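[step 3/7] fold_predict: job queued, chain A
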Amino acid sequence: MSGRSRVGQVVGDYRLLDELGAGNHGRFYLAVPPPRLGLEDARVALKVLDRNATDSEFRRVANELRILAAVRSPHLVELHEAGCVDGVLFYCMPFYPEDSLAGGFGLPHDVTARAVADAARGAHALHEVGVVHRDIKPQNVLLAERRGRLSDLGLAALLEPGMTTTGQGPIGTIEYMEPQLIRGEDATRRTDIWSLGITLHRVLAGEGVHGEIDDRNVMTALQQVLREPPTISERICAPLREVIARCIEPDAGSRYATSEELATAIEATLATDGEGT
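[step 4/7] structure written:
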């Protein structure tokens, strides 16, 4: 059933009610959680990966999953549990009906910028326990009462640590990847900071720093990101343009040292300029 909807099926002891959308390597479903979890919510979001995982692959990421489940931050979507049943890898988190920043381009700019600052604080919480998110983009910043929560960790990249960039997922993700990652270097907290800066630009300007990514094929998209220098839109206010510029410095050492520092910088522009636009 890889790559096809599982609505109406049962995965583990979760009953899948509706499809919420697709993410990297899998699909999100609205699901009924099992009573054993003791959750107050009658519905949860369940991500089911499209590819099957072996028991050894799941064990390889189990330690990191335990770390993620232990991280407590108001800026992270809580990971209720993750599991692997008959080769189907899934993880469960709360359901947020307000959608994500990908669907919130009509929101005031101060709301979207603050949501990215929240996501940056969530990323910092992960970084402090040695975890890099790997896939920060507007779709993965969920909204709860107009504040941001970082979600959808790149668990598939953990399952296949040697995978090539063309295996990283949908073309839409390439826009937010630091070029050094595309060239095969390791993900670090500063590559997440790059992605946060690109995300901030997209939600404020409604366009990417490389224009609209050519989606005819993956190689064309990769070449566009690698060859075209990023351009920051003049539609964004000067203070936030400066924040974005520092996030995407070619020299990673010139970027913000931590995502928390980035969050503070975004919030400072909002305190000074009100709307931040």
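[step 5/7] annotate
Strands lie at 10-11, 14-23, 26-32, 44-52, 81-85, 88-94, 141-144, 147-150.
The two ends are 46 Å apart (CA to CA).
exit 0
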